[in-house]
Structure formats: C-alpha cells, structure tokens
Give the backbone structure.
Amino acid sequence: MLLTDNRTIAAHRDPNILRWLGAYTASVTGDLVYFVALSWAAARTGGPVGVGVILAAGSVPRAILMLGGGVVADRFGPRLVVIGSDLVRCVLILAAAAVIFFGQLEVWLLVVLALAFGTVDALFMPAVGALPASMTTTDQLSRVQGLRMLGVRASNAIGPVLARRPR
C-alpha cells in the first residue's frame, strides 16, 4: 500500500496484508485439518489399501492440473481464483460432512471427495503463490512472503491439533 507522499507502509503494518494473512492462515489450517481427517477416515473405512487409493486420488489431479491452474490464475486474476477455489473447497467439505452425517462413510465417497479437492487445489496453489506480488510493492514482497511462511508454520502447528479425534 502506498502513502500519499510516495512512502510505503511496511507489510506487517498494512491492514490489507494482515487481513490476507489471517485468511490465508485459516485456509492452510483448514487444509491440514482436511488432510488429517481424510487420512483417518480412509484408514477407518478402506484400510491401508484404501488410504493409498484415496490419497493418490487427491494427488494425481493436483499434479496433472497445476500448470493449468497457473494459466487460470493469470487469466482471471489470483484473487478471484483463490476466493473461488476456497469457496468450492468449503462446499465440498460441507457436502461430504452432510453425506457422512446422514449416510454411511464409503470409500467411493472419499475417492470422489479427494479427486474434487485435488482438482480445486490445482487451481488454488498457483493462484495463492501469485497473490502476494499483486498486493504489495516490490520492496515489500520479501516481507509479505516471510509473513506468508509464518502463517504456514503456524498452520502446521495448529492444524493437526485441531484435527485430532475427540475422545
């Protein structure tokens, strides 16, 4: 963000950067909760083979489509792609939770969820990587990336704790 006299606000004081950092940290924490919960549900439902099939089902579209995700982020803008993909991922998780709550946990459901989540992740990951450059000036970019990594580290510490199975 620029001030009126051509000075820049430090990234750690910019309200737009701090709002983005909070949303990004929440998103990454949610991803970690999802991956732990998916692994646990896969092990409970499909055993070791089910875990491998389900986790591979999520990884394959992510690996194949990520380059296309970068093209989509360039075409429509990283902000729109990040917000849209986060909304789709949220809807996927809520729909899966509803199916599980009202029905039976099945391997096929987890495979479909992992495929869909992996596909949307292929859009999200390149867009979220491009977003900091569009939010700040070049001289503040390293600070924004440092704040981003701080959010990732905090999520890595918090996410698995939040995903633990209640007693």
User: Anything to note?
Assistant: The chain has one domain: 17-157. DSSP finds four helices and no strands in the chain. Residues 1-6 have pLDDT under 50 and may be disordered. Residues 11 and 144 are 6 Å apart (CA to CA).
